[in-house]
Amino acid sequence: MRCESKVTVNRDDPPTLLIHGDKDELVNFNQSQYIYDAFRTNDVTCQLIVMEGAGQGFKGEDDARAAKALVNWFDHYLAKKKT
Asked: Shortest CA distance to 38 belongs to which of 18, 22, 58, 53?
């Protein structure tokens, strides 16, 4: 199943991190795959982390992994660098 919604992605979009559980029953995983593909097609820096077996919201080790990925992403792409 593919998402049929229209997505506008531009090369000047900010770096984007997607973290999605492949067992999410609220938001279909294909939604993240669709926007990830659109980012890649338009040369926007992005990463998709698939949390295998996870549903909506993360718990335990999945939560820790998602939080660590978010902090690392922020530090690498979004934090103001000291000069």
From this structure: 18
Q: What's the chain's length in residues?
A: 83
Closest CA to 44 of 17, 75, 78: 17
Q: At 51, list the tokens.
A: 């949390």
Handedness of CA 18, 23, 26, 31 (dihedral sign): positive
Lookup: tokens for 81: 């660098």
Q: Is the pTM of this model over 0.90?
A: no
| DSSP class of 42 | T
pLDDT in tens, 32-61: 999 999 999 999 999 999 998 888 888 889
Compute the distance between CA of residue 79 and CA of residue 63 in angstroms, rounded to an integer.
22
